[in-house]
Amino acid sequence: MERLAGKIILLGGWRRSAAAFLAGAFAVLALAPFDFFATCLVSFPVLVWLLDGAAGEPGAGLLRRFAPAFGVGWWFGFGYFIAGLWWVGNAVLVDGEGFEWALPFAVVALPAVLALFYGLAAVLARLLWTDDIGRIAAMAFAFGVAEWLRATLFTGFPWNAIGYAAMPVPLLMQPVSMAGLFGMNALAVFVFSMPALFAGRRHRALGLGLALVLVAADLGYGYFCLSMPASGSAKSLEVRIVQPVIDQSEKWDKAVRDRIFNHLIELTRSPVAKGATKPELIVWPETAVPFLFTERPDALAKLGEALDKGQLLLTGAVRAEGGTGAGARFYNSVLAINDAGEIADAVDKLHLVPFGEYVPFQRLLGRLGVDKLVELPGQFSAGVNRHTIKLPNGAAALPFICYEIIFPGEGDREARSADLIVNVTNDAWFGNTPGPYQHFRQAEVRAVELGLPLVRAANNGISAVVDAHGRVLDALAINAVGVIDASLKLERGHNPHVGTPATNGFLTIIVFGLAAAAMKLTGRRRFN
Question: Would you say the pTM of this structure is higher than 0.90?
Fold first, then answer.
């Protein structure tokens, strides 16, 4: 291994960039739907060795000193994001002609921008770099900070955070309830990078010991959580999830919208299995209603007729305020519709998709002919707050619309008074690519982080019922038209009641930073 590491360390120019790019792309195999996490045990040691050889010229300016490290981190990130997000290009072309110009942006420019965070991580790690285990702690600290920034800056986009690579199954997901995703990002990079020590002689035993302790703690805590009796309410909720599989190209076609609406009602009214209980809660996907209720009040009356007494429908829909003219405001919302055909509650989407649901710097980009990639009634406005929705049995549902579910820490406060998570989404944009599987995995992990069961309705998959420990109780595959009927126990996951996941995650990152700084200072004193 020392010979291999030596060759990688000595790489320069385009060979170093190509090695970093390939290492980042290889790491994507650790994510859903592949879940081969061992690839990261190769990719991250390669990244460590590349950074070993990316020292800048002594005495040079700050930019020249850290440019090689930034380049390594950026190329690693570019490989990781272009291999992990190539499917975004499918969404650009779904609505037909006119948006081909955006394909390079979706497939190349987006990964290039996201790679800046990993370039920053490489620079931050090099600031604390040593020739021993200290550089592994520096990697964990730097990537922990970078992933936090990626989830926060410019509304955030934490899709495929490194921590997900260490959580392919519920057994390994449980520590996220204590350390949060931010903490899991740092812990995952620390373990993934540890094999780099086997190319040297210092701290091999210590590194192997620490890695084994962390993996054993992960497995042990996971086993403990999964074997412990669940806590919380003794209530059960009868749920029906509707997966209609509406072709995205027809979504807003006025000629077929009545057919779409009737299809949803037919699935809603389909009989339950023999001996099963009628659902109390029915969930339709994101923007399932193909028109504005302000334009079609008869549709609400039809829904009231379709619902049995005591049933409640939660559906994704576009909500309009101020009419439908030039001054109207549109929201991507979850509406609660009761058996009288009345809108009892509404929660608007807070995290909008740039260029999909709104155009940043609209006036400037509008002059250049840049418009939304999604065919919708109008540009969406962001919601103001998130709140729970009361259900017929007295339970409270915490709604998340589409990719809002991937934001760590989102809904932490509201989750304390909630009994379940409802996630509505329309993954038809992504087709049968890794996108829907990645999205679903992140929703699973968020259920564990918040300690609540999850009811997920997707237009064409993956719709599912997931318990508070991330175990899938029932699901519909991509492109499967149908319903899921489930009797969901409103039980919470194991909660250590020590801080919050977000707070503990930050503390984990800080510990790695302090350890790296201590090793850096110790090394300087040793050579002075």
Answer: yes
